[in-house]
Each structure stands twice: as C-alpha cells, then as structure tokens.
Amino acid sequence: MRFLTPFDVKTKPEKKYCFFLKNKIKYIDYKNPKFLIKFLNERGEILPRRITGTSKKFQKRLTKAIKRCKQIGLLPYITDRLR
Fold first, then answer.
1. Among 33, 34, 53, 65, which is 20 to 30 Å from 8 by CA?
2. CA–CA distance from 20 to each of 15, 24, 27, 73 (Å)?
3. Residue partners of 63: CB distance under 8 A and separation at least 6
4. What is the pLDDT of residues 2-61, one digit of tens each?
5. Residues 39/47, Cβ–Cβ less than 8 Å
6. In angstroms, what is the C-alpha Rg of the chain?
7. Gap between the terminal Cα atoms of the chain
8. Number of helices (H) and strands (E), helices first, in the chain?
9. Is 44 left (phi over 0), alpha (psi -120 to 50) or beta?
C-alpha cells in the first residue's frame, strides 16, 4: 500500500527549554491566574516538568504559586474544561 505523502521521521526530538529562564522571569506571581493557566491541563491539574520543560527550581515555585492561587479561590481545584 502506498501513501500519498512521505512519512516525516525525526531523528532528534526538539529540545525543551525552561520558559522562565528564557524570558528571565525571577518571580512567579500567584495572583495572576491567566498566566498560571498555561501550566494546567483541562482538568485543572499541574503539568509535569517532562511536558512543560521547566527547570526543577521553577517547577517547585510554579507548583507553590498554583496551589496558593487555588487556595485563595482564583483558580478552581477540579474542573471539566478550564481553557
């Protein structure tokens, strides 16, 4: 069976980078839910480092900021469709 378009085989996956190091962000503000939504999935769960590409230091800060934002009621704990 022949295909109309050839397959694209990548030998090396694209390297992930830390969003915070690249943009020189030093402080993650927990009072900005629009920014923090980028790092949540549709159910409101925090995305892991292997998916977002953030460094360990900033992933801890990000987790803490998201949890604080949820605690004061700016973000929901669980939802069906967040975005």
1. 53
2. 15, 6, 9, 25
3. 46
4. 566 666 667 677 788 899 999 999 999 999 999 999 999 999 999 999 999 999 999 999
5. yes
6. 17
7. 40
8. 4, 0
9. left
Segments of the chain assigned E as strands: none
49 token code pair:
């480092």
**At which residue do the structure tokens 């892991």 appear?**
48
**Among candidate residues 3, 79, 68, the one with its CA nearest the CA of residue 41:** 79
Residue whose pair of structure tokens reads 């050839």 in the numeric block: 6
pTM metric for this prediction: 0.80
Polymer length in residues for the chain: 83
Looking up tokens 């993650």 gives: 28
Domain boundaries defined on the chain? 19-71
